[in-house]
C-alpha cells in the first residue's frame, strides 16, 4: 500500500446544462468505488474544524456544494491544503490519508460520498496513532 498525498485527485463531476439550470450527477463511473454512504456537513460555525482523522480502508469524495472550505491532507512526511469551492469538482481521498476540514465560509455545504458505511474501527483519530499505523503498514 502506497500512501502519498501527491496522488490525491480533483475529479470533475459530470454536468448537464439547460436554460433551467445545471444538474450534476455522481454515479459509480465518477468515483472509483461503490457508493455505500452519502452525508453532508452544513451550518459549520466560523472557526470550527471537522475531520481530524484518517480511515484505514474507506475512500471519500468531498465536494463543496455551496460556499468553500479547505481540506488539509497529510501523509507520513508531507501536508497540502486544498480549497474546495466548485460544486462541479471534488477531492478524492484514498485510505490512510489524514484529513482536516476548516475555513468554512458562511453557508458552506460539504457533501461526502463514501466507499463504506460508518465503522468506528476504521477511524484513526489521533495523529500519533496515525503515524504509528503507517509505520506498521510499511508504507
Automatic annotation (TrEMBL):
Superkingdom of this protein's organism: Bacteria
Which SUPFAM superfamilies does UniProt cross-reference here? RmlC-like cupins
InterPro entries, alphabetized: QdtA_cupin_dom, RmlC-like_jellyroll, RmlC_Cupin_sf
Q: Which Pfam families match?
A: FdtA
Coiled-coil residues are none
Pinpoint the Sugar 3,4-ketoisomerase QdtA cupin domain residues: 7-133
Listed name of the protein: WxcM-like domain-containing protein
Amino acid at each position: 500500500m502506497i500512501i502519498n498525498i501527491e496522488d490525491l485527485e480533483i475529479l470533475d463531476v459530470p454536468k448537464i446544462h439547460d436554460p433551467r439550470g445545471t444538474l450534476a450527477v455522481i454515479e459509480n463511473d465518477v468515483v472509483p468505488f461503490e457508493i455505500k454512504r452519502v452525508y453532508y456537513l452544513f451550518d459549520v460555525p466560523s472557526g470550527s474544524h471537522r475531520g481530524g482523522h484518517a480511515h484505514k480502508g474507506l475512500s471519500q469524495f468531498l465536494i463543496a456544494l455551496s460556499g468553500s472550505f479547505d481540506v488539509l491532507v497529510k501523509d507520513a512526511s508531507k501536508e497540502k491544503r486544498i480549497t474546495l469551492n466548485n460544486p462541479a469538482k471534488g477531492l478524492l481521498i484514498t485510505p490512510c490519508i489524514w484529513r482536516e476540514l476548516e475555513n468554512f465560509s458562511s453557508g458552506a455545504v460539504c457533501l461526502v460520498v463514501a466507499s463504506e458505511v460508518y465503522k468506528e474501527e476504521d477511524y484513526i483519530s489521533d495523529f500519533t496513532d496515525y503515524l504509528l499505523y503507517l509505520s506498521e503498514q510499511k508504507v
